[in-house]
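Predict structure. Chain length: 419.
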Amino acid sequence: MNKSSFLNNKILHKSNIALLCIFGMFLGFLAAPALQSIATFLFGINGLRGIHPKKWFKNKYWVLGLLWIGMLAVSFFWSTDVEYWSSGLRIKLPFLILPLAFSYIPSFSRSEKQLITLMLGLLLIAGAAYSISFLISDREYYLAQYKISHLLPTPCRGDHISFSLSIVLYIIWAIYNWRNLDDGLLKWIIGSTIIILAVFIHVLAAKSGLIAFYMFVVLWSCYLAFYKKKLAGIAVLISIPLFLIYASKKIPTFKERKGYAAFSLFMLQYGDRSGNYGDVGRLMSYKISLDIINQYPLLGVGSGDLMIAMKKGYDKFYPQVEEKDMLVPHNQFLIAGVSTGIVGMALFAIWFLVPLTWLKRNRPSFYFLMTWLVLLLQLCIDTALEVQYGVFIFVFFLLLMKEELPQFANGKDQAVTTL
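Prediction complete.
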């Protein structure tokens, strides 16, 4: 093999193309949805090239996802809004591509993991800087917006839930990969990135991001205390309330967000049913969706008629709520139940719970479980898998950590790794 052929083969190696696609997917996630879609498609083609379709069906997780999405597809026959049905199905296409692609890409090397950690961290820092720039340019205006639950503009077209959860998921990944980082400059950069993003989560003050962050920090500190470094784990636990007190006094957006959360709780206890307060609106959507599932228990109303059914529910239970404030259920399990009944909800739940069977008593399993728990939170409080950004962070971070589990990292097909 001459030098030119060797270089071409190295450049076209699956891992190298995968790294380029990951950069494109994540950059697209933050700033350009079209780029994200293109990069996802190319990632899939790269992962599946040279793989016979018969092998696809050996991936049980992919097959379960196929059944769940197939149920949504079949609900076409009892949906009336075909456009809503096709839109929802199209958003879920990454579930048909990425699980297979990740399975057939060679395990990333230590240097490649370093590059992924650095690359994603710098992109998220750039996204955080974008948000902070608004606060710097007009501090008084944005602090006033926090009094009415309007957060700083964020990448992902303002989807602050997806953006804040992507930061938490990145922090989990970066801490897991700390051992893979070269001593010196790289550790300094990644360590600084983790600290800056952790502080930014409090500046943005999205409730979902904060809950996910502290859920991880508490469990991580317990993990350290019981299995690794007892004093370090205890120190982290003690620092949590101290930092929350400090943030409440010194970070103005966090302080305003805390005040709004208390006010929202008061309105819930007061019995407000206007739909103007986020948490109250979520609870209202839960009540309506449970009523719909009770009416259509077996197969649901069809994924195309999700919003139609919810509007009828609002008219029945909360006629005072304006149409602009009507929500689909902010819980992915309830969305599955309303759309495809108990059958579809069971398929979805099984598909989501299967990753727990991959856990072992080892370090990668702990960080995989942390990733899974953050994604569970996402599914329980948001319409995560009904929007492009939510689908991406779910499937990307889950599969990225899955490939770190020994039974998957060590079980790669040797024929694949040499392509």
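Summary: Residues 3-8, 413-419 have pLDDT under 50 and may be disordered.
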